[in-house]
Design goal:
Elements (H helix, E strand, L loop, with lengths): L7 H7 L21 H10 L27 H7 L10 H14 L3 E5 L2 H12 L5 E4 L4 H9 L3 E4 L20 H11 L6 E5 L12 H14 L2 E5 L3 H11 L8 H10 L3 E5 L10 E5 L2 H14 L10 H14 L2 H20 L12 E5 H4 L9 H13 L4 E3 L1 H4 L15 E5 L7 H16 L7 E5 L10 E4 L1
Parallel strand pairs: 2-3, 4-5, 5-6
Antiparallel strand pairs: 1-7, 6-7, 8-10, 9-10, 11-12
Amino acid sequence: MMTTTIPQTMGQQFGRRSWAEPWKIKMVEPIRMTTRAEREQAIDEAGYNTFLLRSNDVYIDLLTDSGTSAMSDRQWAGIMLGDEAYAGSNNFYRLEKAIQDYYGYKYIVPTHQGRGAEHLISQAVIKQGDYIPGNMYFTTTRLHQELAGGIFVDVIVDAAHDPTDLSPFKGNIDLNKLESLIEKVGAEKIPYVSLAGTVNMAGGQPVSMANVRDLRVLCDKHNIRLYLDATRMAENCFFIQEREEGYADKPVAEILREFCSYTDGAWMSSKKDHLVNIGGWLAVNDEDVFDKARNMVVVYEGLHTYGGMSGRDMEALAIGISESVQDDHLRARIGQVYYLGELLTDWQIPIVQPVGGHAIFLDAKKFYPHISQDKFPAQTLASELYLESGIRAMERGVVSAGRDPETGDHRYPALELVRLTIPRRVYTQAHMDVTAEAVRAVYENRENTNGLNMVYEPDYLRFFQARFERL
């Protein structure tokens, strides 16, 4: 096993440089390696969009950590306890208690996944012409806010837009930017501040406890709600434990509960931190908002005691919540991401720094400085990585950013990235070695690579279904 410089907390935990995952393998799922000719045919048929590849044609699947984690034996055992009653399932009440215990919110509305919860909160509190400030957009979140009539405004710190900046909390909200927006549009036009933990589009960058604490004071001053995208908050809290003064000796579960206490509610895609294949929830402390959301969930998702999930799914989710905040689990989960990041850094391959919690983000602009953003360098890089190795990654650049609804022009984000997303408890260190070597091979061939043209573009969330052709 190769060794690597690991986080100090991990070194203290294991007492040596090498480390191993805190689990053993009980069941395996075979995967196959394709030939170059097979991959050329597959990516061409998929229109050079990795979302349109068939999973059978993928060797190591780093497209997403959403619903792709491995469940534990306890979760699988919990599935056998599924109460599939249409109303009042026992599993819902166990799920409700787990969310209340670990996150601290009063009222819980289950949904089939995160975007269901995004839809409910957006429709419940946003009015036409409202402004929703947040720490960098996320694709589905912003779309639901816009469909409800809102206008998203990015108020993240400037460091988040610089992939080389080593600031430890690049997910923080810039309070001066937020205050300026409040002065410009008025607090009554801001239904809530949208705060995301480990900001995905910035490279998985965390928010500090000090920032959310100060943000709470500012929101109280102007009577503005503060809602949290808690999708990867367990990982965010690991970074607080590792990087923020006063938290090194506190367990992640305690840090999570404190962080959430500064917010008025949260939505969650449980398919990430909570180690399940499906599920999500909305949680709030305001009874009026809860009543609106609970009324809408029966229209769009399912009854208010299942929200689109089966009883067995809710049971696995309740167990996954408790497992997601275990310190040993998080050290190993983020340690695996660190390991891949260090390999690439040692080979001087450009990635977003510091390394985030769920993925390595390749800097496509530095891979391909000769490819302009309107020729989709990140989409190109994801395609080239698949052709080289059968590894599937995700574009996070101009394609994901979409078009400005006012002008119809491409949005051109400062960050043009490819995300190598690590599913939880799925791949080994050897898979990370193979991935790093494949990225290096693509990087060494970068000068011989051209961009792409977009030949099909759907109306919404185009990165899922758009098609391209090679130049």
